[in-house]
Design a protein that fits this description.
alpha/beta; AB_hydrolase_fold; hydrolase activity; Alpha/beta hydrolase; Hydrolase_4; hydrolase
């Protein structure tokens, strides 16, 4: 009589084989792909939110084409906000984070990194860093931006990219100067968060250090945030952030130089601007510069 392998064991073996294969790929190629979850679905467009907007397509130095939205202020602009979004989906799923700003008299420019939305290419850390700078260089040439305060708002992954961009901008004494940097729910470093996440899973726990070494440590935000000074920095982090733990925001704030502010919030990850009081605090920060 043939011995039959229990169905539950077969499922377990298949699952283990799949995980082992995935780990093999990570060991061979590095695990920077864990930072990027793009798609090309259009979730909502600015006109559905009664916002005026312009589609922007710009070319990167390495041959990719990025898509973005320019959202003009609804009245005389007080300034401009350059928004760098988080690691999933695309600008059409993140627009609610900044859709309120034109009504507060701020222009907004937001882009999709390579591989996201209508942008070409495939994302990686170096590529998205280049994309964040390419978008910023397009923005500073816009006539409605010049001679007005200029702010960078980065959320989650966008905050890590924004920290690297702002620190280099300040160190190179690029013009025009930034008037403020706002980091919302940002991790303190690419390698740091990769090691932390790998350590949460029993199968990758023993490999958290060697796998995290495949991530560059050249752009650790906690090592770069101090270089943004004397540009004011606001660090925002929620005590209930289930994606990027609160201690990342604390570490960034401690590493930042004055002038700096910390806004402790109580929302889920990426939900800061659902709360009107948090919006007001950010507006106060910008209008105080």
């Amino acid at each position: 009589m043939a011995i039959r392998t229990p169905r539950v064991l077969l499922i377990a073996l298949k699952t283990l084989a799949g995980i082992t294969a995935a780990l093999a790929v990570l060991m061979q190629t590095g695990c920077s792909s864990v930072f990027f979850y793009p798609d090309d679905v259009t979730y909502i467009t600015p006109d559905r939110l009664n916002l005026n907007y312009e589609n922007v397509f710009l070319d990167t130095p390495d041959g990719e084409t990025l898509h973005g939205w320019w959202l003009p202020a609804e009245a005389e602009a007080k300034g401009t906000v350059y928004f760098l979004h988080g690691n999933a989906q695309n600008i059409s799923s993140h627009i609610m984070n900044v859709a309120w700003l034109p009504g507060e008299h701020y222009n907004v420019f937001l882009i999709d990194y390579r591989g996201y939305g209508r942008s070409t290419g495939a994302p990686d850390i170096e590529g998205t860093l280049h994309d964040s700078e390419a978008g910023f260089r397009w923005l500073i040439e816009h006539p409605d931006v010049q001679k007005r305060p200029l702010f960078l708002l980065g959320q989650s992954l966008g905050g890590a990219l924004g920290t690297a961009l702002a620190s280099e901008w300040v160190k190179r004494d690029e013009q025009p100067p930034l008037d403020g940097v706002i980091l919302d729910g940002t991790f303190s470093g690419f390698r740091t968060i990769a090691r932390e996440k790998l350590g949460e899973f029993w199968l990758t726990w023993p490999l958290q250090i060697p796998l995290s070494w495949t991530i560059t440590d050249e752009y650790e935000a906690h090592e770069r945030i101090g270089d943004i000074s004397p540009v004011p920095v606001m660090v925002i982090h929620s005590v209930r952030d289930g994606i990027i733990p609160f201690h990342h925001g604390q570490r960034l704030f401690e590493a930042a130089e004055e002038p700096k502010e910390f806004l402790q919030t109580d929302t889920g990850h990426g939900a800061t601007f659902v709360i009107p009081a948090y919006r007001e605090t950010v507006l106060d920060f910008m209008e105080g510069q």
